[in-house]
Write a structure and sequence with these properties.
The protein has about 250 residues and is of the alpha+beta class. The protein folds into three domains: about 55 residues; about 90 residues; about 80 residues. Helix content is about 65%, strand content about 10%. Helix 2 packs antiparallel against helix 3 and helix 6 packs antiparallel against helix 7.
Amino acid sequence: MVAYVETIIENSNTLKEVDSDHPADEWILSRLAGALEQVDNHMSQYMPHLAFMELQSFILGSLCDVYLASFFQLQRSVELESDMDILLAMVSSVRSIRQQLQLPSSMVFRGALHCDEASHDFSRLAPVLFDLAKFDLLEVISHDHAVPSGFTVCPLPGRNGRLSLKIEDSYRSDFVSRLQRLMKKSEERSDQFRKKAEKYEAIVLRDKQEGKVKPHVIDKNEKKARQARGVANGALEEVARIRVLLEEMSA
């Protein structure tokens, strides 16, 4: 866990060293050093339960009850909370695209936020957005602003806004290849389930005409036909969506 945190700090543009001579800051850093020393001692003696108790005491006692409660008056920022909600929606949208298209996490997106709810100072969160989603925010514009040529549009879940995305040139060919492979796979899936639906529909039609099969068997096959038809139609919709993306990228 410690190694993971150190890696995050090392690669993050938003986490920085704070050099402060304020007595409160010096005190909490001193308490932290003492707590970590005790944790090391307990762990070296194979007593992890005491190490966790030491950490709990530091976090709940020194950090929360004294440092935060006594030395700082925290003011709620409704504007910041709203901007963070928008940012998290952007992260969710970008991650969803990566997952759906099976894109590597290292692939960088560039684009704009189309949203009337974002504050005028939203761009200050751009480094956080890049850390979380590898999204390079170019600008924040109105919801109805025209989408630039060559950009792809995607919605923001739960927000009145959208993103216009553009893939970095170094990843563009790989992105297009992945889209084409995914479209072909969706076409094959649609064809496969269309044939399955047609098979069950033919069985249902035959059984109804002959009248020799029990109703519950016919109902079962009708259900299978509907399910297969639904999968086939869903795959066709995916094909259409990917085709639009490819056309937008080639524009």
